[in-house]
Amino acid sequence: MQNLRVHLIVEGRVQGVWFRDSTRRQAVELGVNGWVRNLPDGRVEVLAEGAADKVERLAAWCRQGPPAARVSKVVRDDEPWRGDLGTFAVRYG
């Protein structure tokens, strides 16, 4: 099974608890490791890694986002999967 690490930056009306917590729940449901956090400038940052198909599904979910949200940056990391991020976590700040 191929693994994948994706780093997303989501802009628009996403700052706050709803998007962050919804993203976390979606990741846990998919079995994806990583974290999500609000950035001081109003964007949301997501780092996810795990089975490529599950990470792609989480990225697609983030792209749907709330109205006026958009994924402005996606970085696919080709480094070997570290597997050390643990359960999907919410980070503050």
CATH fold label: Alpha-Beta Plaits
Helix content: 25-40%
CATH class: Alpha Beta
CATH architecture: 2-Layer Sandwich
The figure for the number of domains is 1
Shape: globular
How many DSSP H or I helices?
Answer: 2
Structural summary, described in words:
There is one protein chain. With about 90 residues, this protein is an alpha+beta fold. It has one domain: Alpha-Beta Plaits (2-Layer Sandwich). The protein is about 30% helix and about 35% strand. It is built from two helices and five strands, in the order βαββαββ. The protein is globular, with a radius of gyration of 12 Å. The N and C termini lie far apart (about 35 Å).
Strand and helix layout:
Layout: E1 3-11, H1 17-30, E2 33-38, E3 44-51, H2 52-64, E4 70-77, E5 89-91
Helix pairs in contact: 1-2
Task: List key phrases describing it.
Alpha-Beta Plaits; 93 residues; 5-stranded mixed sheet; alpha+beta; globular; single chain; 29% helix; 2 helices
Summarize the structure.
With 93 residues, the protein is an alpha+beta fold. Helices cover 29% and strands 37% of the residues.
